[in-house]
Amino acid sequence: MRGRNPFDGKPQLTLRDVADAAGVSEMTVSRVLRNRGDVSDRTRARVFEAARTLGYVPNKIAGALASNRVNLVAVVIPSLSNMVFPDVLGGIGDILDETPLQPVVGTSKYDPETEEKVIYEMLSWRPSGLIVAGLEHSDPARAMMRNAGIPVVEVMDVDGDPVAACVGISHIKAGRDMAREIARRGYRKIGYLGSSSLADHRAQKRLQGFKEGLAEAGLELAESCFYEGMSGFGTGRAMTADLLTRRPDLDFLYYNTDMNAAGGLLYCLEKDLSIPGDIGLAGFNSFEVLDGLPMRIATMDSQRTQIGRKAAELISANALSDEVIELNPAFLEGDTIRPALDSASSSS
Amino acid sequence: MRGRNPFDGKPQLTLRDVADAAGVSEMTVSRVLRNRGDVSDRTRARVFEAARTLGYVPNKIAGALASNRVNLVAVVIPSLSNMVFPDVLGGIGDILDETPLQPVVGTSKYDPETEEKVIYEMLSWRPSGLIVAGLEHSDPARAMMRNAGIPVVEVMDVDGDPVAACVGISHIKAGRDMAREIARRGYRKIGYLGSSSLADHRAQKRLQGFKEGLAEAGLELAESCFYEGMSGFGTGRAMTADLLTRRPDLDFLYYNTDMNAAGGLLYCLEKDLSIPGDIGLAGFNSFEVLDGLPMRIATMDSQRTQIGRKAAELISANALSDEVIELNPAFLEGDTIRPALDSASSSS
DNA sequence: CTGAAAGCGCTAACAT
DNA sequence: ATGTTAGCGCTTTCAG
Do the Cβ atoms of B267 and B301 come closer than 8 Å? Predict the structure, then answer.
């Protein structure tokens, strides 16, 4: 006795059942249901009727095995609770909705080993494409991506060595550009507030670029504050309180993400600090939900929806390209940074 | 010539290839890779070696077809951008991580037809379980859920007629309890701010329960304000500005979600309204990211992680139960509502 | 402990 | 316009 589905529910309906009910061959039913080839209207109607009344649901497993076609696109991201990634998925969905392809999401929890396992699992379903966040992966993961034989796109970041195609922004540049803006606007004692996690490669790169940008202007980071755990208003507030207590002389705070910056902003407003005169703030990402804060936070749009769209386009074009598409994060001045002293109003 | 994967990449490696390389039968390879049955250590080692050097990735499609076992759990939710659902997914993941099961997410965009299609698509992959948000579905969707022959759990909401098992809270009660709290604390002119979308059934139910709760206290809703589109600080702020302009006499604002309430709170603080004295505010959901706001918003914890966990437990128990598990949302007083006038401090 | 045979439900390719 | 045949890559079952 073969096992059916878990706990041997009723045996699944097959094409055979529909074919018998409609008085035609399995092949005809298959054609009708997939809308392939020519079938007479009369037969077509009979088949649909039979399928509907029986409640037939096709078995894509068998179909996929027979046709060697799987309309799934594997998407591997670190987490869903970081608002960044749902936005990328949104962009992917926008594009794939116009195609027969469907995204399937797996999460790595910012852990390379988990990521490797998830990629392995997903590839074992033979998807039509693979989208992975970031450029840092274990060697086996990279090997799998290289040998998958399907379009593979790494997203979010272009600072590194992509396995194949790649769509993202340069976080190093993003950090550097922000440093330049801050320096140009006359701030001099600058603090950084961000995650202590080395696994957040993109935030690390922004910090690196940020330091470089400061150095260009003859500045250096006056102080930093790192947290573990999740970003959020509470985290931003606590870090800010801590940092400003230790270094009340700081005149600018650069945050790894807008969520933390928002918490910091609220703290500063509560302490009646004069923004952006006495102290400026900037974040990263440009989260739409934050639009109603008392002040718009200076930030840089991370282009995540656009990244998702471009990646999905590469996948649906079905080319095994190794194109690198670098998007440009837009600097959004907001209200928490002083106007530029010189004439130019935006970065290079 | 049979098509291989898209664009005929290299032919995929099969068990055969590994078997040949290791000098054993396909069956032995299969046993080693699945860790089933007894295989000598020597053979085992040889097989692993061969699989690793070839870079073999098993074909789960073929495996699933042969074994009639698919370790996937289909999860259908309206959207990923509403922070509620990632939290549910988190709970699901917590539990499934301890099992061989993997969640696969599909989104319905709050549209019953899309939901129906997504359920159909997912069921056609013969998953081991199905979790669907909400109790409102098209008739065909309900039929599919009923006949799927796998454990099915509807989540979030218990006010309605579940197809099978169900884990959630009563949003009607949640609304009613909040109304009671508000009334008990002496507020009398109460406004509601929420989505105009009838597709947001749970918000509608909270509103319904809220009105009932007010009626119990001899009150009725003084005014409402509805929005289209996404919740967020901007939306909350705009609605609040609008409502308070029309009705400056209101002394309480009940929001459909904490995100909007936060925007409203910031607006009220900006206008120097005295909270919770002159005006009180309450939301729904208890979003952790909001913890660092100037005041903690009165809210009700929607238990979404817990809901995800319970649902996943039902699925992994693999019982086709029709159990209804009602969780109790916790009222969180916060700072934006006056203390109770009478002695009791919490709802029934 | 290992192998050989059969077949999962479907679709490509070739009839008719 | 419809039917027939073979087989996708794996696992189940049964034999050694």
Answer: no
Give the confidence band of A3 by pLDDT, cuts at 50, 70, 90.
very low
**Are A199 and A337 within one domain?**
yes
Number of domains observed in the structure of chain A = 3
| Same domain (yes/no): A238, A319 | no
Which amino acid residue lies closest to nucleotide C7, measuring CA to C1'? Answer: B66
Q: Strand B299-301 and strand B330-332: pairing? A: antiparallel
Share of chain A above pLDDT 90, in %: 93
Kindly tell me if the per-residue pLDDT of B266 is higher than 80. yes
- Distance, CA of A285 to chain centre: 12
A15 C-beta less than 7 Å away from strand C = yes
Does the CB of B36 sit below 7 A from strand D?
yes
Per-residue model confidence as pLDDT tens digits over A52-79: 999 999 999 999 999 999 999 999 999 9
Looking at the complex, report in whole angstroms how far the Cα of residue A174 sits from the nearest Cα belonging to chain B.
Answer: 25
A97: Cβ contacts below 8 Å, ≥ 6 apart: none
* Tokens 């989104």 found at: B107
- In a domain, residue A63? The reply is no
Question: Are A208 and A266 found together in one domain?
Answer: yes
Here the CATH number for the domain that contains residue B128 is 3.40.50.2300
Domain range for residue A148?
68-169+304-328
What is the pLDDT averaged over residues B322-329? 97
Q: Indicate if A287 and A342 belong to the same structural domain.
A: yes
Let me know: does A102 contact B121? Beta carbons within 8 Å.
yes
pLDDT of residue A347: 44
Give B8 to chain A, closest Cα distance, Å.
Answer: 8
Residue A9: which pLDDT band, with cuts at 50, 70 and 90?
low
- Nearest nt by C1' to B126 Cα: C9
Q: Does a structural domain hold residue B229?
A: yes
